[in-house]
Automatic annotation (TrEMBL):
The keyword Kinase does not apply. The lineage of its organism: Eukaryota, Fungi, Dikarya, Basidiomycota, Agaricomycotina. PROSITE patterns: CENP_V_GFA. Residues 41-174 form the CENP-V/GFA domain. Residues 173-197 are annotated as: Disordered. One of its GO terms (molecular function) is metal ion binding. Keywords: Lyase, Metal-binding, Zinc. Belongs to the Gfa family. Residues 188-197 have a biased composition (Basic and acidic residues). This is CENP-V/GFA domain-containing protein. It comes from the Eukaryota. Pfam families: GFA. It comes from Pholiota conissans.
Length: 197
């Protein structure tokens, strides 16, 4: 059992994973011993070497991201991400299979924020920030559509960089929600209206 005072120091409890030092005693790599964790969902990468549990019933938010970085790193027109607290995710197996990528520094250093993937099948698992995670709901083994709907996106971000129009009625933001204007769903309507207010 960890004592609360030594739970979060930056210089302690480091563990080497593929040559990178990570805080293996911190969520999501280990449980926070100061609060209970009740598994609600299970998830895994494609090859199932990396497995994790999720304790929250629903994410804080979920979004479709159309930024060029997500398009390239996911090999897809956009990415679906759910924002959850680190304490609500726990890797149950495969921590030694994780690899990291810092897109800002273009390096495999474990330096937050960073992208976390499986070293075996290369499945993107999450983007790890200092306090939150952007977890990819396609990896969650939902038991029913009602649970899956709790993770549905509320908006599109970086929609100005989209590869295609998405006519789903969700709000579309030029960049980040809350700090950029909402824009129309289709290219043709953008010619008439520059932004929705």
């Amino acid at each position: 059992m960890h004592h609360h005072q030594d739970y979060y120091p930056d210089s302690l409890n480091l563990h080497q994973v593929h040559g990178h030092l990570i805080h293996i005693d911190r969520p999501p790599y280990s449980l926070d011993q100061t609060k209970p964790f009740k598994k609600r969902y299970e998830g895994s990468c494609f090859c199932k070497k990396v497995q994790f549990d999720i304790a929250t019933d629903a994410p804080l938010d979920a979004k479709f991201c159309h930024c060029p970085t997500c398009q390239k790193l996911h090999g897809a027109p956009f990415q679906w991400a759910a924002i959850v607290e680190k304490n609500d995710v726990h890797f149950t197996s495969g921590k030694d299979q994780l690899i990291f990528w810092n897109s800002e520094e273009k390096s495999q250093e474990y330096h937050l924020p960073c992208k976390v993937s499986c070293n075996n099948c290369r499945t993107p698992i999450m983007d790890e920030g200092k306090n939150m995670l952007m977890l990819f709901p396609t990896l969650i083994h939902f038991k029913n559509s009602e649970d899956q709907r709790k993770f549905y996106p509320t908006c599109h971000i970086f929609y100005a960089s989209r590869a295609m129009d998405i006519k789903d009625g969700l709000p579309k933001f030029e960049k980040h929600k809350g700090s950029s204007p909402e824009i129309p769903e289709t290219w043709s309507s953008e010619k008439d209206d520059t932004a929705l207010n």
